[in-house]
Each structure stands twice: as structure tokens, then as C-alpha cells.
Write a structure and sequence with these properties.
single chain; 405 residues; alpha/beta; eight-stranded mixed sheet; seven-stranded mixed sheet; 25% helix; flat; binds S-adenosylmethionine
Length: 405
């Protein structure tokens, strides 16, 4: 029998070197150790934070990792992940209580699809496996996405190959569901007819296959502040509207009454456009199509201050201190790798305030250390549980310059 000591960054219990998925600290368990893991633990003494999973698929499905824990436990654990990542870099900061997305709120997800001898299966990968689990009663996805699964299966029957797996990125828009597929059969003339027919019959807003738009009934559009933005197919969007609102509120609070804002890794304008109600914004992003949607949304909106856009690879060509000279606040929301090169330049800048958003506490803490060593103070961190029941942790934070360069 062994006792679980803590959780690792995948949310799995650990005892010494042994990882035990779906267990909680303090639990006594036993089971066979294979390659440093106990895949099927028997819970001898359960934690008082253990709950019965609210989803009937949880046992088989790998889409969620933490449904066996109470909401309060997960919220605290996500704070601990941030606290530990910061302390590993010698940092400390006030952490605000975790804001958790509600069940059934995921408006964007990537599912796997497999063609079967008869029919097809679309769902999440099964636990520790590359098979696909059906998820008709999934508790994560918005109802509109869940309702689209039979239509996705039809697409896979026609466009999936017998060997490979199809990746389906689905996004719920007010105009209907958008489906962006990769890994299917190469497009030929029959597929160019059959796939849009399925999408049209099921009322999908847009279907893209390997990046090519095959059907667009009406441009899928989202509201970002006063603007309406139509992102390119498969574009990055915050995964739940509630987490987006929480991150935006934290960013707005962090930048305060800044009049000149630079939004780095701006995407389609999640932060730029709402901030443009009070400030001039320069939005910088690596994907030109995303900035085109942002720019179009800004041009069509009324009541916004000036927004300019710049396509730029911020890993290779970060904005330099001279380019940031007249900036009151920077918003920075990099991908999981963080933004080391850009943060080094921010450290040499005189920008008074930085609002940082991150989906990876480890790279956030690494970048935070660079900023703190360059004279910034980490004022607070807002932890956001956007990916409910998973081990992912999101956050927003405020840095202010307290020592000159
Ligand atoms: C986490 S998303 C944030 C997007 C946006 N702030 C939002 O909330 O919707 C990160 C963004 O960084 C962009 N990106 C990734 N690597 C980049 C790079 N090297 N240079 C510039 N932008 C990059 C991606 O295209 C993506 O839009």
C-alpha cells in the first residue's frame, strides 16, 4: 500500500517516483507498478476531497483528468501550481481566488475522429490510449458542439481514411458550428461535393478541410467589445466565454487608464478591441489572417480609438525598447512556450505597466523572473480555470515598473 503525497503537473497523484492517475494527496492506494505508474489503482482510503465524477464517460475518456476531485480542491491546487512555479524562480505574489469556467461552457475543442468498418467515431482520446471514446453526454462542451457530433461522424465516414485519425477543431459561433479538419483524405472532386453537402445539411456555419474553406453559410462572427470580428477558420479563441471575460477584466484592471497600449500576441483582438474603447492600441501578432479579421472588425465598429496592426514574429523580432518608448501599458499573451525574447526587451524598456496572460505557469514564472530582475514588481496574479477538470492552468498578472532601467 502506498500513500499519495502530491499531484504532478498532469494532475496525477505521486508517491516518490511513482505516478498514480486519478488519485489525490493523502489517499492510500494499492495496485501493480508498471514502468513507474499504477494505471489502475485501488483506492483503499479515499480523500475527503474525492467526489463521484459528474460524467458517465470519465472512466474511459481521457478528455478530463480531475473530475474525481472537488471543485474547491482543484481551485486550490491550480493556485498551488502557480505558487510553486513562482517560488521555483524565487518569486512570490498575491494570488487571487481561482475563477472556474462552468460545466458545458467549452465553445472550442479539438476532437479525434476514426473511420470504422461501418460508420465512424468522434470524441476525445481514451485514457492513455490512441483509441477514440464516444462522448455523447460530455459535460465540458457547449450543447451546440455536442449536438454536432453525429454530423462530424458523417464527415469522417466520407473524408476519413481507414488508417489515420482525423483531427476536428470545432468552434461554436452564434451563426452555427465551425469545423476545421486536418488529417483526412486529400480533397478530390467527389469530396469537394460530398463534404459541403453534409455541412450544409447540418447547418454548419463553416467547414474547412486542410485549411481550405469548403462551405461558409455566413461568416462566423464574435463580439469583441464594440466590434464584431470574423476570425479565420480554426483560429485561436479563448476556449470559454467566461474565462475570456475573466482574463479581459484582469487585463483591463491591470492597464488602468493607459492611453497608449501595445497588445503582443494579439490574435483576432480579444484584448485589443475592448481596450480600444479607452486607448489607442497597436496589435502585434504572427498570423496575418488573424490581424486582418481584427482590422476589419475595428474598421466596421463605431466608437473605438485607433487600432493599428503589425504582422511580426515576436520570437525572432521582439519589439525593442525604442519602439515601446511612448507606451503606457503592454498586454502580452504568448503561446505555451512563453515570450522570453520579448520579455528581455521589455526588461530594457520604460513601459510602466505590463498585463501578462499565460496558459503555462512554468514559462510565465520564467518570464516573470526576467521582468522582476529588470526592475518590475509582480503586483498580483489572477488564476483562471478555463479548462475545467483538466490540469491546465491559465492566469493573468500585473507587473509595474518600480525601479528604473
Ligand atoms: C494564447 S494566443 C492569444 C491570442 C489573443 N491574445 C487572444 O486572447 O485571443 C497566442 C497568440 O500568439 C500568436 N503567436 C504564436 N507564436 C507567435 C510568434 N512567434 N510571433 C507572434 N505571434 C505568435 C498565435 O497566433 C496566437 O494568436
Amino acid at each position: 500500500m502506498i500513500t499519495i503525497e502530491r499531484l504532478n503537473l498532469r494532475g496525477e497523484g505521486t508517491a516518490g517516483e511513482v505516478a498514480v492517475p486519478r488519485t489525490l494527496p493523502g489517499e492510500e492506494i494499492d495496485g501493480a507498478i508498471v514502468d513507474g505508474r499504477i494505471a489502475q489503482p485501488r483506492i483503499v482510503t479515499p480523500s475527503d476531497q474525492r467526489v463521484s465524477a459528474p460524467c458517465r464517460h470519465y472512466k474511459a475518456c481521457g478528455g478530463c483528468a480531475m473530475m474525481h476531485a472537488s471543485d474547491a480542491f482543484v481551485a486550490d491546487w491550480k493556485q498551488d501550481v502557480v505558487r510553486l512555479a513562482l517560488s521555483a524562480q524565487g518569486l512570490d505574489a498575491p494570488l487571487r481566488p481561482t475563477i472556474t469556467s462552468p460545466a458545458g461552457s467549452r465553445r472550442r475543442a479539438t476532437l479525434a475522429g476514426r473511420r470504422l468498418k461501418s460508420g465512424a467515431l468522434v470524441g476525445f482520446h481514451a485514457r492513455a490510449s490512441d483509441t477514440v471514446t464516444a462522448i455523447p453526454d460530455c459535460k465540458l462542451l457547449e450543447p451546440a458542439l455536442l449536438a454536432a457530433i453525429p454530423a462530424l461522424e458523417e464527415l469522417v465516414v466520407v473524408g476519413g481514411s481507414r488508417k489515420g485519425e482525423v483531427k476536428l477543431t470545432i468552434t461554436s459561433y452564434p451563426q452555427g458550428v465551425e469545423v476545421s479538419v486536418t488529417g483526412g483524405k486529400p480533397l478530390d472532386t467527389p469530396l469537394r461535393v460530398a463534404l459541403p453537402e453534409i455541412a450544409g445539411r447540418h447547418g454548419m456555419a463553416r467547414l474547412a478541410w486542410d485549411g481550405e474553406v469548403l462551405l461558409q453559410r455566413a461568416p462566423p462572427t464574435l463580439r469583441m467589445g464594440l466590434a464584431h470580428v470574423s476570425p479565420p477558420a480554426g483560429a485561436f479563441l479563448q476556449a470559454t466565454p467566461q474565462a475570456e471575460a475573466a482574463l479581459l477584466a484582469a487585463v483591463k484592471e491591470a492597464v488602468g487608464d493607459a492611453r497608449q497600449i501595445v497588445d503582443l500576441f494579439a490574435g483576432c483582438g480579444t484584448f485589443s478591441l475592448p481596450l480600444a474603447e479607452n486607448a489607442e492600441v497597436r496589435a502585434v501578432e504572427g498570423v496575418p489572417e488573424m490581424l486582418e479579421s481584427l482590422d476589419h472588425g475595428w474598421r466596421m465598429a463605431q466608437g473605438l480609438k485607433r487600432v493599428t496592426t503589425e504582422v511580426r514574429d515576436l520570437f525572432r523580432r521582439p519589439l525593442l525598447p525604442d519602439e515601446l518608448a511612448k507606451t503606457d501599458a503592454v498586454v502580452i499573451d504568448p503561446p505555451r512556450a512563453g515570450a522570453e525574447a520579448q520579455v528581455i526587451e521589455l526588461g530594457r524598456s520604460t513601459v510602466p505597466v505590463i498585463a501578462a496572460v499565460s496558459c503555462n505557469p512554468v514559462t510565465f514564472a520564467r518570464d516573470a523572473r526576467l521582468l522582476v530582475h529588470a526592475g518590475y514588481t509582480l503586483d498580483w496574479v489572477q488564476v483562471v480555470d478555463q479548462f475545467r477538470w483538466s490540469a491546465h492552468v491559465e492566469l493573468a498578472a500585473r507587473f509595474s515598473r518600480t525601479q528604473s532601467v
